Amino acid sequence: MRKVLTAALAALAAGLVLATSGCGSSSPSAAVPVATAPAATVSASVPGAVNPGGPIQGASTTCTYTRTGSGAASLPPSKTNPTTQYTATMRTSQGDIVIKLLNSQAPCTVNSFVHLAEADFWDNTQCHRVSDGEGLYILQCGDPTAKASETLSCDGSVGSGGPGYQFNDENLTGATYDAGTVAMANAGPNTNGSQFFLVFQDSQLAPSYTPFGTITSGLAVVRKVAKAGTACAFAAGGGVPKDKVVIESVAIAKG
Known about the structure:
3 helices; Cyclophilin; nine-stranded antiparallel β-sheet; two-stranded antiparallel sheet
């Protein structure tokens, strides 16, 4: 009976991730791990996955970023060097979170993340969703419509924003979502945008969300936010953090 219950909870967690970016709305672009472009643009054609497996070898990688409408951000450069090492420091109203970016495993994802960070894309936005149960332990951020000045609700008005482009999945073979993992939210295969989630406790998810970073400092910040609970609950699970989390800036360092 215990094994059956565990399996059921894992399945529920996977479903939540694939059905929440719209935060309870009918938009398909909702989910913890799911949440990127608005429903009207999710159908944009995207080529096959660039790097569904392990590290990429070579000095240069070509990435494809596809417009999904009027862009809120410029497209990242198409060429990137997977051997460059990056660290991201996300300064938030609750404390700093430091992330080692996995450039060799997910170069196109990291290339986009660095591009958006250097464009101040996430400055003064909120992490709009936290989940602390049923196999899903994450804080989801990156929606540009979740403005710092607003009081977020669970009515479906946040959770589907993106940068105005999409790109392919990477690094999915054997992917797990242990505590400290940073991965992309999406609205289905190859629909990555600007939303991502921070895992603060081992989570049961299908290998469908590109892992592209590891938290090296600040995991306690995420756990504190999760422990405080939610201000409201999304129909699909989780809710808006009761302790408001504003991303003040994301600084990128090489080496």
